[in-house]
Amino acid sequence: MKGWTLTFVLAAVFGLCVGPFYWLAMAATHANSDIFSWPPKFYPGDQLAANTAKLEESIGLVNVLGNTLFVAVAQTAGAIVVSLLAGYAFAKFQFAGRNLFFVLLLSTLVIPGGVTIIPIFEMMNDIGLIDSFPALILPSLSVPFGIFLMRQSLLAIPDELLDAARVDGAGELRVLWRVVIPVMRPVLAALAVFLFLGAWNDFLWPLIALRTPEMYTLPVALATLQGLARTDFGQVMVGTAISSLPMMVLFLILQKQFISGLLAGATKG
């Protein structure tokens, strides 16, 4: 009896998680007038190509996807490099004020992101980067949580292992590349998924920093489809479904490393 109860609960949770995505995929294949009709249409329609074509005409889907992918990859790669280097310095180097700087870094985790919008905008505007991709990428390179995660994970690597590589003549960058990164691969994969998810779905800062429609990212471009009197939800559903695909693909590719990284972070003291 207990086994059937557990199966029922898991099936209900699975339905709650997968159900909205299934309805989204089905709605993307129907005309705008059929999406909210009653009873709901939980079967594929024949309007997917038409909705996709209208979406391409409305926002330039291919260009917008390219913008979003470029910004998300650049933000993720840059933030991982900065987080790894900063975490390595905090974990393995001794320098004056190390603990103080680390405490100050951690204190920034409690600051709401919206508080920094105006200062960041002023900085980007002063150096002439507003309405450019660097305005989206540069403020996202320093991620306090990423530095904290790297530092805590690097503390588990024995100093003797790094010293042995140095004795063999390896410099710090070679030690990092040959010794540290292979050990840290699961944690790096987990961090990459989190960072890419945040960059791909970021809406507020691109909305503020970008003014040229040709440079819009996907969340901002989809928001322009919302009309005052009428909204073509067929286009919105197609765009939303497309925006969900990269994260699913990325997780499927990195799921082994992602889960290993989470378990490593949970078991290391």
TrEMBL record:
ABC transmembrane type-1 domain segment(s): 65-254
Subcellular location: Cell membrane
The keyword Transport appears for this protein: yes
Topology within the bilayer: Multi-pass membrane protein
Keywords, sorted A to Z: Cell membrane, Membrane, Transmembrane, Transmembrane helix, Transport
PROSITE patterns referenced in this protein's UniProt entry, alphabetically: ABC_TM1 (PS50928)
Transmembrane segments: 69-91, 100-121, 133-154, 175-200, 233-254
Keyword Signal carried by entry: no
Family, similarity comment: Belongs to the binding-protein-dependent transport system permease family.
Protein name: Carbohydrate ABC transporter permease
